[in-house]
């Protein structure tokens, strides 16, 4: 509650600042709120700092809260550098702050009913961001896709918490129900909305459309935190209904394994950088799903490492693609190489982010992938063949991407709009590296004691 | 003078409709319904520049309402004379469904609405229907008629938003929106009159805001909504659109949630499925409308740029859609 009050008061104060100072003020506020949210990291179990009638925070929610605040700040920082953010920038600040406010509450609330309301409410600011600052006319169908998938997929969840309210009188999430024989239809209803949000194969088709149409800041938020709502929701539902390894979970894991290979294969085929990063997200989220549905502590740790790491790496890729595509006014990878040649420092950053995305040590993604693979192989060893295919394909698309971006074929005239990248442009990227290092050293944070 | 006559006839129609709510006999309900409809005819006919089109709309409306009334009266007489309950209930069910414009008897709604003025659309599409729904006997003696009435309501809820997608004219869009909400009202009537009254109030106020904003811009075609709708009302319209989309925490989500809750208590799976299906299609339709409205090449005044009255109306609309949902949930 203290964090929410602090956020509201800060926003109220920022309203009275000069419009030119508001951007810097809001970014600083996000930094401060992120620091404040670290108070909730009290280890596993419920944090004493945030116990109240409405809210309750444990390590899973507190890590998501810190991620939300950090990513929303990054989104504002990167958008303030973009020249293609037309219109009144203050509207963007308001929408991102509102979205962050909804997300923080979403990760804090006690009841499934409020969680559902906030889960759906996060669609509104994001749809507005895509609608106002999206580049093309196709943004309308992409928003319809996203809204229909998310809202339609979570209708079963609406029915579930309504049933809880009607029959039990409350949808309090911290009750742990006795394990009873619940069929796969019930589990499907519980998890469908969150699997679509993650997004899990085969419900992933909305994500590339949304990413392509969204501005850079919107893609940062979507990839950085909104997809993680799905993972968090799955965790809460599992805790609430005492989910153990079931046939439904094995089916989901099977789809995820196929999805990871499919996502990596689709990345190889992409010429649009944003679609490539979107399909890469589908592949990585598959590992989170595998970890979560394996119902092991190792799997849970692996899943959350992936969720948090991906929350920093994917936005980093989008930041780089935003800067690079602004230089050449195109999202085609082959055209973007002109920008990399004009500003060679970009090539270095691309290398670092591609390696982080691939899971090259010391990036924490490798820890997550290893832990998730261990969980899945424990169930059925021959799955390793498919996972091996994934590792080969992900290496191939990462290598292909880097080669295309940094090809040295000489051209007479380089078509770039500006040929230097300043510290201000890259500041968003620097702020993404630090938390990755933190995750690397604190990777066992989500292990239950 | 014309405005005065419109108000007079409207008030008389309203009085007849209120009187209808207190009638205990179905015959007097029929009488008051018809009296209300008759007084609406001059109201609907009032046009500052009379042209053939108003006659077409009012004539269509009058003929359909007359035919529906004949069916209801026929049913009442049959029941009184020879106690043929099945036949009389079937005739009354048909008559009420026709008057309400429920699927598949909704053919007249769009044809009439296209020729009405916006005041007429609000009164016929929201005001009148609310009173009629509250007075319909639910045919509990004849389960077949009750099921038919219920299924027509379900059909209206699902068909309405699909037809809204294909609407070219704004008034046609409002017509099918009215069909959808009539379905919701009738479904609500199966759970109790208190739901009908609550939902009616909410629906009428929301439609009043919507219709007033569209009237102020003299909006004709859906594709031109972005340029025709006044800039100072756009924020309010966006809130209405988000509410009708079914996004929480807006008002319409809360009302649908209450219906779902009641359906769950009574294990009414068909209602739950229908409400959810209708909500999903509504979401897609209103997202489409939202983007038509917010995409405008014309540079126009923005939020709080109108007169005091216009700004008050705009703010009221925003507050109504954003906060009344929570208020309604707490009250209920």
TrEMBL record, chain A:
Molecular function terms, GO-annotated: NADH dehydrogenase (ubiquinone) activity; NADH dehydrogenase activity; ubiquinone binding
Domain of life of the source: Eukaryota
Transmembrane segment boundaries: 24-43, 63-85, 92-110, 116-134, 146-164, 184-203, 215-234, 240-264, 276-294, 300-325, 346-367, 379-405, 426-443
Catalytic activity: a ubiquinone + NADH + 5 H(+)(in) = a ubiquinol + NAD(+) + 4 H(+)(out)
Pfam families (UniProt xref): Oxidored_q5_N, Proton_antipo_M
Ranges where the NADH:quinone oxidoreductase/Mrp antiporter transmembrane domain occurs: 111-388
Compartments (UniProt record): Mitochondrion membrane
GO terms for biological process, alphabetical: ATP synthesis coupled electron transport; electron transport coupled proton transport
Keywords of the record: Electron transport, Membrane, Mitochondrion, NAD, Respiratory chain, Translocase, Transmembrane, Transmembrane helix, Transport, Ubiquinone
InterPro entries: NADH4_N (IPR000260), NADH_UbQ_OxRdtase (IPR003918), ND/Mrp_TM (IPR001750)
Domain NADH:ubiquinone oxidoreductase chain 4 N-terminal stretches: 4-104
EC numbers for this chain: 7.1.1.2
Bilayer topology term: Multi-pass membrane protein
A GO-annotated cellular component: mitochondrial membrane
Stated family: Belongs to the complex I subunit 4 family.
Function: Core subunit of the mitochondrial membrane respiratory chain NADH dehydrogenase (Complex I) which catalyzes electron transfer from NADH through the respiratory chain, using ubiquinone as an electron acceptor. Essential for the catalytic activity and assembly of complex I.
Name of the protein in its database record: NADH-ubiquinone oxidoreductase chain 4
Gene: ND4
UniProtKB/TrEMBL annotation, chain B:
GO CC annotation: mitochondrial inner membrane
Membrane topology term: Multi-pass membrane protein
Short name of one Pfam family: Proton_antipo_M
Domain of life of the organism encoding this protein: Eukaryota
An example molecular function term from Gene Ontology annotations: NADH dehydrogenase (ubiquinone) activity
UniProt family annotation: Belongs to the complex I subunit 2 family.
Protein name, UniProt field: NADH-ubiquinone oxidoreductase chain 2
